[in-house]
Give the backbone structure.
Amino acid sequence: MGRPIFFEYAAPMKPILRALTALMMITPVAAAAAHPPKPAKPAKAAPADPVILPSDGATRVMAWVAASGDNRGLPWAVVDKAQAAMFLFDAKGKLLASVPVLVGIATGDEASPGVGGKKLADLGPAEKTTPAGRFLARFGLPVAGQRVLWVDYATSVALHPIPSDAGAREKRRERMLSPTPEDNRITFGCINVPKTFYARQLRPQFRKKGGYVYILPDTKPLEQVFPRLRVQAVAAS
């Protein structure tokens, strides 16, 4: 029985195989040189989140609460109506988030007498204010089937996401996402916050024992709303 043909032609085939191997290695390079790939389009950078800066008053309140421990070991938040922003801190004073908010459509720092007992449809334009002050906020009775963080239950001021039944004409989401605070006054007095922020950051912090919410004034002097600021200023001088 003779040897297989493969071995009879093995020796002559070696130079051819080497040549084919070399050609296979060279051809892609040559092809690439003849048809250079098109340069990849630079990836579009994701739009940066707007930087939310506190007003001078908010900065003072933050410094006072952090230095004095006025939050009494609870998480806390500062609502800066002038900037239409909210700054959330944990119980130890670490800043967790800063987000845009919507506040009462009317300028003012006090709730109208009896406003808590009225229906929303019965509120006059001047009654739609977000009152200023220091509030111990807790989750409470549901509104429209959903528990909310009550800032001041007596005056029906709560902190929650934009209601699903908010009128389309109000464009609350667009107002919240706008780059300026001028159009963020649209609520009946409650404070609207971004939905994701509410679910992932605010609610876990305030769920167990609540926390303090410091709402800055529109027209009143800061020290009138937070008298201890004056004491801090005197101590620092």
Remarks:
- Helices lie at 5-8, 10-34, 56-68, 172-177, 195-206, 222-225, 228-236.
